[in-house]
Amino acid sequence: YTYAKRKKESQLVVGAADLYGAACLEHYHLLHVTETKNNDWLKRLRLPKKIVPEPEVKKYLQTLRLPYLRRPLKFSPERYPRIEVGADTMRVGKTTAVEVLAQEFKKLKLPVMTSFEDWRHNPHLKKSYKDSSLALLNSQKWFIQRKFDQVRLGAKNKIWVQDVHPEMDYCYALTNLILGRMKLAHFREYVDYFYSLDWAHVPAADALVYLTASDDVVIKRAHASLRPFETIDDNPACADRYFLVMKRVNQTWLAGTKYLLDVVVLPINTDNFNFAKNSEAKKKLAKKVLQKLAQLGWRYNGR
C-alpha cells in the first residue's frame, strides 16, 4: 500500500511524495485522517473560496457519509485480479489508462477484459448539462445502476479492468449538489437509490489505479478535451470551479479508503506522464500496475 503509511494508531498519513512526487500545500489537509470515522470527511474538504453551499445543503452535508461499502476479495492464485481506474476528476486519462493497460497486458499474453462507462447510451446525459437537476438525478441513477451491473459481473477467467469505480460516480453527484446544480431533494433521492443497491456483496478492486493531476493541468486538459455537450456554464471560471470541486471531493473520499474501504491504491501523477501517446509511458504504466499486483501475490511474466 504505497499511498499511505501508519504514523499513529489513530492516524493515516498520506504520502505527498507518492501522490504528486513532492510535498505540496494542495493536499496538506488530507495528511491526517481519523482511522475509524466516516463523519469527519467534511472537515477535510477544502472548497475554493467562492464555493459556499446553501445553508440547508451545508447542514445536510454534516450528516452525510461517504460510501465505503465494498471489500476486496481474498487473494487467491486461482483467480485473476480486479483493477479499477479512478482519478481526481474528468479528463485526467481514466479511459485512456484502461485502454493502455488492456493493450499492454495483451502484448504480454495476459487475458484481460475491460469495462467502460457506457455514456453514449445514457438517455439523460446531454440534458443533465443544461442545468436540469432532474436530468442530473436521472443521469446519475442510470450511471450507478449500469456501474453496479458491470462491477457485479466482473470477469471470471481474465484480469478485469473497470473504467471509473462506483464511488467516483457518487462523488460526481455530490459535486453537483455542492455547486447547486442538483437540488437537495434530488440528491437525497440519489443517495437512497445508491444505497438500495447491494454494494456489500459487490467486491472492491484488488487495486485502485488513481490518476492525479495538479489544478492547472486539470483545467488545461478539461478545456482541451470536453465533449461538445459538456458545457457547465458559459463563464469559464464557473466551469473551472466545477472540475476543482470535483477534484477536492474525490480526494476527500480517497483519503478515507485505507481504514474505511481497505482497498490498495496505486496513485499515478499524470502531470508529465503522457501514456496516451508515448509508447514507453504506456509500458511504464502497465509495469507499475503489474508491480503492484505482484506485491499482492499475482506475478505475471516474471514481474
TrEMBL record:
Which positions fall inside the Deoxynucleoside kinase domain?
90-292
> At the top level of its lineage, which domain of life is listed?
Bacteria
One matching Pfam family, short form?
Answer: dNK
Name of the protein in its database record: Deoxynucleoside kinase domain-containing protein
- The organism encoding this protein is Candidatus Beckwithbacteria bacterium CG22_combo_CG10-13_8_21_14_all_01_47_9
| Organism placement in taxonomy | Bacteria, Candidatus Beckwithiibacteriota
